[in-house]
Every structure is written in C-alpha cells, then in structure tokens.
Inverse folding.
C-alpha cells in the first residue's frame, strides 16, 4: 500500500494481468508479484484513476476510491445517427418558458458535466449557477444597472458599446436582449493556477450543453454576460461568488425553450486540412 495515494491491491482478486501498469499515463505502476508504486514516484501520479477503471476484476483502489462505488460501464453507446441529428439541430435559444427546472435535476446534469476532461487532470472547473427566478431577476437588474452606469459615464468602448444600446432598450421597453428572460444561468470557471483553466471550463460547458439538449432544454452561449462580469464590473463577479483566483471560461443561459425549430440550418461548409507529411 502507498500512503500518499492510498494505492491498494486486493490479492484475492488481482490476476496480475498488467493492464493497470500498461494504461498508467505516467508509467509509474510496477508489476512485481502485484502492482505497486514506489514512494518516490507517487508525486508523478495524475490522479486520473485509470488504473482502477481498467482493472477487469475490481482488484485495485486508489485515492480512497473503491471500484465497487464506480459506475459500471454498460458499453451501450448513444445511437450515432440520433447524436448527429441532435448536434446538427442544436440552435441558440432566445425564447424561454418561465418555468424553472428542478434544482436536483440541474445538479445532476452539472455533476455529470464535471466528468469532462481537463488539462493535466486538474479537475478544477467550478460551476456558478442561478437556479431561482428571483435571483435571476435580481442579477439581471444588477447587470443592466452596471451597463447603464458605465454607459452614462462613457466608459464602454468599441466594439462593446452596442451593449449600452441594449440597456436602453431594456430600460425603455423591457425587451431583454442580454438575458433573453432565460430562467437559468451557469458560468464555468477554474483556478488560474490550473494548466488550462479557460479551456477546461469551455469543455465542461460543452458537455453540459449536450446533456441539457438531450433532455429537451435550450441553451445560449452568452459572451455579453461573460464580458459584463469579467471586464465591466468586478462587483458582479463578487455578487455571484466566483472565486477571485478563477478565470472565467464562459456563461450559458438555459431553460425550457418556448420555440421549436422544425429543421436544421444548412452548413456553409466545413474547413478541413488533411495533413500529409513528407
């Protein structure tokens, strides 16, 4: 057993097949009589748990994680044709029903999205979510107030100055072209000390979008909200409780769509370069 990693092997189950050693990204698992990790190599572990996941008999545990507590792989994959159709039919939704989603359901989706890959297996993506109507209304008002204050002072410069016009539209007509009156908002961020904090956050949100779309929920990647909390008014970031040492990946609106699209758009074409090295 290794103390730091809590690397343990059940001798009654281990067949010494060597799969754990062969699949270790850092190559630090040694095959003697049983798999083991030398104490001086423990710090090289990525904590990816591949060794536990690949073991066919569930003989190996690490980091206090027991194989019997892991989700079994049923090897049943989503229908490729339906998956392709869902991706091609995905639309940016700007009309939402007022109905809010169940908090437990939202948390389940976010928990699944947290399995998304991260650079160096940092696993540091943090989801800041608004799941209540009143909170969403309050935050919407805060953002528009910040835009008004900065716009009146002439502090919003091109190319973002159009947002001041959106604030005026909201102020005079109640038309919301920033939040689109969506019931929910999620923002993904990660510690700036991570290897790829922004990229990790974007990947996690992409996983989340696929999950919610598969459940009939609409989404909108909203760069204007990200800009408001990241660049316009840091008090907005503080109000949301986003950790100060985090880099924000993106903001996404979501909720039950109040519109249906009977067909997909038609692509303008793909851009592919096929590499041939001589």
């Amino acid at each position: 057993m290794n103390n730091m990693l809590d690397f343990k092997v059940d001798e009654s189950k281990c067949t010494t097949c060597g799969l754990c050693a062969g699949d270790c990204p850092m190559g630090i698992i040694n095959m003697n009589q049983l798999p083991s990790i030398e104490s001086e190599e423990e710090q090289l572990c990525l904590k990816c748990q591949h060794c536990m996941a690949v073991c066919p008999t569930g003989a190996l545990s690490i980091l206090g994680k027991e194989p019997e507590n892991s989700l079994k792989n049923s090897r049943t994959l989503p229908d490729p044709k339906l998956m392709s159709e869902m991706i091609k039919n995905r639309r940016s939704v700007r009309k939402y029903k007022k109905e809010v989603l169940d908090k437990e359901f939202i948390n389940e989706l976010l928990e699944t999205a947290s399995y998304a890959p991260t650079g160096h297996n940092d696993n540091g993506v943090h989801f800041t979510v608004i799941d209540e109507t009143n909170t969403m209304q309050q935050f919407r008002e805060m953002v528009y107030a910040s835009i008004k204050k900065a716009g009146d002072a002439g502090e919003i410069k091109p190319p973002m100055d159009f947002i001041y016009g959106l604030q005026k539209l909201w102020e005079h007509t109640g038309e919301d072209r920033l939040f689109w009156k969506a019931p929910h908002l999620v923002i993904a961020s990660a510690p700036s000390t991570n290897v790829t904090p922004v990229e990790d956050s974007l990947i996690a949100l992409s996983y989340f979008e696929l999950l919610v779309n598969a459940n009939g929920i609409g989404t909108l990647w909203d760069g204007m909200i990200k800009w408001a909390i990241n660049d316009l008014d840091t008090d907005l970031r503080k109000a949301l409780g986003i950790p100060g040492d985090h880099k924000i990946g993106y903001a996404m609106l979501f909720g039950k769509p109040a519109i249906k699209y009977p067909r997909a758009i038609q692509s303008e074409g793909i851009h592919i370069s096929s590499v041939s090295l001589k």
